[in-house]
């Protein structure tokens, strides 16, 4: 479908609500819930009632049940979304974006069509110093690793001060489900089943990235050592080294009990409900300002989280569905076509071309995404046969997901010019590859071929566009496990 045929859909939705203004382009809102697992959504089958506001939003919108992130780290994932480029094409070696001058961001394109734009983000990996700020008229941050509690009021304040004669693009972000998971009362232990929280458990909740194979480590040196020494951090050899280091530690590393693990999950689920409550508050503020009926709203997560799977509580060392499978919901103005579910596989890079088509704007050349407008309208839509995700550890991990399985390669960085040759030459099955359980060898071979073909299309970033990260911000990110073990 051409972008020039998208406006009638939105215009008809507005007319049905008595707000007929076919020439007025819709506003655009993008909300990102950082580190939010897709399996916590009620509409995706979670039975615990964690997300009543998101579930109601899905009833008024279109739910993509199989959406996949392009990176397991915050900055490159969001930069990928805002440029519709794969993560290693727009990410530098020092975490900050590395966007070529001829790569255009979503706010840049919308600005060319008369939109005013603002971002209200929760600091840290999206701080103005290293965040994807290009094209925003206003880009402001809250406290580092903040919540929608911080950014929603900032966003509402901007809405009240904006130029009401022009359409707007607003990006709102929060780290609500990012560690630490424990949120303010009553949400912090809302899902806990009577566990008493003592000082040791409180410390555990504050440092879940440091739980490795059932032990709480005081720092990241252990994880760094293993990931640098082994091609595959989760290999039997790496696990044996971890066990040896734990045994030799003096004083011993604390063990993680079953009740500790339960409490971590309960705290994460409480954080999910906290994020859901603030998202509901934001929708209410939009409704109070009569903005819901002429605004396209996209809700996404940049990546998920590991909660004990494989002995870890961090997204650094895997690209399985706990990390790459993310929520993606789209609400059209007035809730048009609400309640539709799309099971085709899609990527977050598809958000940019979708929004541009919905507002009648031409997409920039070279983007990687495909418009989802046909799926929003209920037209036949096959989606992708393979979804690609890049990982942390300097992007030394690459994953290809199909309907029949997942194949992950660990070796050189995804931006390396040697990647394609090494992918094609590595033994399969072999130590460089890890397949999800039940993935047939023939499917592994097909996924490897898909990786090689995908790599051949990559555009490697130039050092000329890199951004230097301030040392003080490096230290803060390192304290949260985000620099050396990215």
Fold topology:
Layout lengths: L5 H11 L10 E7 L18 H8 L2 E7 L5 H10 L3 H4 L15 H7 L3 E6 L16 E4 L6 H14 L6 E7 L24 H7 L5 E2 L2 E2 L4 H9 L6 H13 L9 H31 L6 E6 L20 H4 E2 L1 E4 L8 E8 L3 H9 L13 H5 L9 E4 L6 E6 L2 E6 L8 H7 L7 E3 L5 H15 L15 H9 L7
Parallel strand pairs: 1-5, 1-8, 2-11, 3-4, 3-5
Antiparallel strand pairs: 2-9, 2-10, 6-7, 8-10, 12-13, 13-14, 14-15
Output the CATH homologous superfamily of the largest domain. Alkaline Phosphatase, subunit A
Identify the CATH class of the largest domain: Alpha Beta
Shape annotation: globular
CATH architecture of the largest domain: 3-Layer(aba) Sandwich
CATH topology assignment of the largest domain: Alkaline Phosphatase, subunit A
Q: What number of domains?
A: 2
Structural class estimated from helices and strands: alpha/beta
Largest beta-sheet characterization: 9 strands, mixed
Query: What is the mean pLDDT?
Result: 87
